[in-house]
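Sample log: DUF2971 domain-containing protein.
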Amino acid sequence: MYVSNEQITLPETDTIVWKYLDLSKFLDLLLCRQLFMSRSDKFEDQYEGTFSEPTYEELKKISENNPKFMDYYKSHRKNVVISSWHINEYESYAMWQIFTQNSEGLAIQSTVKRLQEALIPEGRYEQHIGEVKYIDYKKEHIPFDNNFFPFLFKRKSFQYEKEVRIISNLAKHNLNINEGVKINIDINKLIEKIYIHPKSENWYKNLVFQLMEQLGFNFEIEKSDLESDILI
């Protein structure tokens, strides 16, 4: 399900999205057939799920006669979990650098439509998909008429992430969420292609092919475009 509002940009369903991750996390995804969603206040960005300055000032005025109004937003972040995906028609060298280590990573190529179809509808948690909008937190307003909106806005300094998010609000489940939760996922619908790290050695590439065969998956595995031979 999409998060919809005139102030939120929704990506087209054929938009290509990527997730860059280490082999261990990729194998966990395949073996468990579950997608990890991180607790929103565990992200590196300390502003995650908070409001811009104009919105915060508005919230303070509202909460003068209703202190619980502000308390709700302060505690809300620990109940929201997120899976982040990168929008790009092509591979991103920067994403390889940020999210993989030791040249032993993989990238999952998918689409927004595949994300939608891969989410198990009868799953325990209700998921929403939305594209992040990057704004000036000192000047621009973040709407608060929907509980998901604070998690669909980030500061302009994070524009390079070009992010689409799967979001769940787990408040009604009364869970003690540590780092995050795993949600059931249809792996075959989720993954369109797999790309192997451009700086990986041959033994690692062979290992990936062998693992996919032994686990019974027949995903299309691509050599990174960044590894193309130099033509002189």
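Observation: The longest strand covers residues 80-87.
Observation: The chain has a mean pLDDT of 88.
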